[in-house]
Amino acid sequence: MTAPAAAVDPAHLERGVQALRARGYRVKLAPHVLARSGVLAGTDAQRAGDLALMFADPEVEAIIAARGGYGAGRLLTLLDYAQIARTPKLFVGFSDHTFVLNALFARAALICLHGPVVAKDLAAGLAADSLTHLLAVMAGESGQFSLDARQALAGGRAEGKLVGGCLSIVVAMLATPYMPDFRDAILLLEDTGERAYRIDRMLVQLRQAGVFDAVAGIALGGFRAPGGEPAEQRRIDEFLREQTADLGIPVLAGLEVGHATSNYALPIGARVRLDADGGRLDVLEAAVCRGPR
Known about the structure:
By secondary structure, this protein is of the alpha/beta class.
């Protein structure tokens, strides 16, 4: 386990670690997982070094981020992607780790898991079925599975590699060497704590950057308004519908993925089928790691 982003609360980390140990997993902590440098979990060099160390360690079979927050994007230029590709293993995280998930797929061809983090989701008591799902996907027991969505904003079916994650981070990756290859991909988007006008502005930026013209379909996870304000939530939902209505591609909304949801794990880089007519996202390709040791 490593902390590529914000500083970690020791008590929260311990609760999350115990949740994994209760399921039969051995947990190894990176040397600087509880380090602090301002709001970050250690210096950029320490956090990047810990991530590299976990990839190189033969005892480690999967790497789960301690928490998100801020700071993961600062590591992208510090990682040796060729070296990481020589010791492939799963990396699990979401939110700010959208930077790492997509960079590892783009630069090291690793399928990563957009899913729960230890000192937040697991520490807070992640729903048992979501934790079971995460561990089954990690162990290769759920190589192919489906997630249901609440509604289709545009009908149809499409297949492609799954890319994306947190909307604000996807936008921050545009025009960098680490942005995903959006061509014929299924784009996953979710976010939290952003006002409706900011959500709309980011969606407009994706449209104007040609991202929505390139992708084969869009899968929308959780979008939670600041404080859960009902009026603001309605505006967010309206903007999501408005900005995806005329694209001519299937769009699913309301997947239990990301912030303020059950946060079911999805493999970034794996081939998926977006079936808006059937109201589900089908994962067609496994992201495999061995189970408890």
